[in-house]
Amino acid sequence: MLKTTINQVFKHVDEDVTIGAWIANKRSSGKIAFLQLRDGTGFIQGVVVKAEVEEEVFKLAKSVTQETSVYVTGQVTKDERSPLGFELQVKSIEVIHEATDYPITPKEHGTEFLMDHRHLWLRSKKQHAIMKIRNEIIRATYEFFHQEGFVKVDPPILTGSAPEGTTELFATKYFDEDAYLSQSGQLYMEAAAMALGKVFSFGPTFRAEKSKTKRHLIEFWMIEPEMAFVEFNENLEYQENYVTHVVQSVLENCKVELHTLGRDTAKLENIKAPFPRITYDEAIKFLQEKGFDDIEWGDDFGAPHETAIAESYDKPVFITHYPTSLKPFYMQPAPDRDDVVLCADLIAPEGYGEIIGGSERVHDLELLEARLKEHGLDQETYKWYTELRQYGSVPHSGFGLGLERTVAWISGAPHVRETIPFPRLLNRLYP
């Protein structure tokens, strides 16, 4: 018998196939039983008609328990009512392992219960869809940067210094030295850009930030490109082209998953470069006019501020030229004023907040050394970083995209905890 997977059944219409699967759910209606089958690649309905199968097969179809693993054999037929477009006319069922008392039933469960059973919750239809969208974003990321001539570089996770200070880092001992779990690979990526031109990294980052919002994780994944000979405006163009590519790839390749999640794809179809841009100055004025009396120049934006700004646009919006005092030491000052830097945050629509932070980097050695001093950072610790400006310094730029926030936005997930397989939250290290 031909063995296949659910995502490949379209190749076998009107043929008999065998699929290894789990029973996601089942229901019966008199002389017909309906099995919701999943195999990791997708979901398909198996139809068992009593009059067309042996008596034992029909009894098994009615009694088989949720999450029991099976081999199901049947004929693939077209079905326009199915999001997949196909269903399986079941002829035989072979039980591999019977599951009993599966804890996550089709009824409603509380968040904490589901998080305690995250290892099983991942099997559900919506969680499966979010993970498939996450995977497509990762695939499209590699595709975009490969097409643009970037080289993938892997920065270290254990570091001896911090790009933005050590207040929100996890400290550990590296034999007899202090070390930290990386909150960003950026500084190392700058070194790689001076060797390879255009580079990007994709890896885990860690922030010991005691936040409980729907946008924050303790451990999350970042895509961090750095580009030699690229200045501020060109950096923004790379960002909007990258985000456009990712969104359009998800629309093209995750139609079933977006349908499963009930995502309004019309909002995503509009996501195409160029994106609107406003300055920090303009954003402050806008917020004050909108009634945010608590905000004044020099303040950072919180979630309500970002959401109010984003609601005025139907695409992601860049907020540029933040005050120097709000940003890290490595950002290049604007040429016409020294109180703001050449940076931008990209704010996603629909209340999902900042998904990218980027800037042109300081490339002048004296200015960088002065900035390190201003921020109270040890010059010796950053000696290797300052040497990048000592031997053939060039204007260069980069940015970091938070994968989980991007997945949440594109999939419409209500919380970033659903966008990573095993989330690490302020009070959760299990499972």
Descriptive account of the structure:
- There is one protein chain.
- The chain is of the alpha+beta class and 431 residues long.
- The protein folds into two domains: 2-97, OB fold (Dihydrolipoamide Acetyltransferase, E2P); 119-418, 2-Layer Sandwich (BirA Bifunctional Protein, domain 2), CATH 3.30.930.
- Helix content is 30%, strand content 26%.
- It has helices at 55-63, 111-116, 118-121, 125-147, 186-196, 232-253, 255-260, 265-269, 280-289, 303-310, 365-374, 383-387, 403-411; strands at residues 2-4, 16-29, 32-38, 43-49, 69-78, 86-97, 151-152, 158-159, 171-174, 177-181, 198-206, 219-228, 277-279, 317-320, 343-348, 353-361, 396-402.
- The strands form three sheets. Strands 7-11-12-17-16-15-14-13 form an eight-stranded mixed sheet. A five-stranded mixed barrel has the order 2-3-4-6-5.
How would you summarize what this structure contains?
This protein has 431 residues and is of the alpha+beta class.
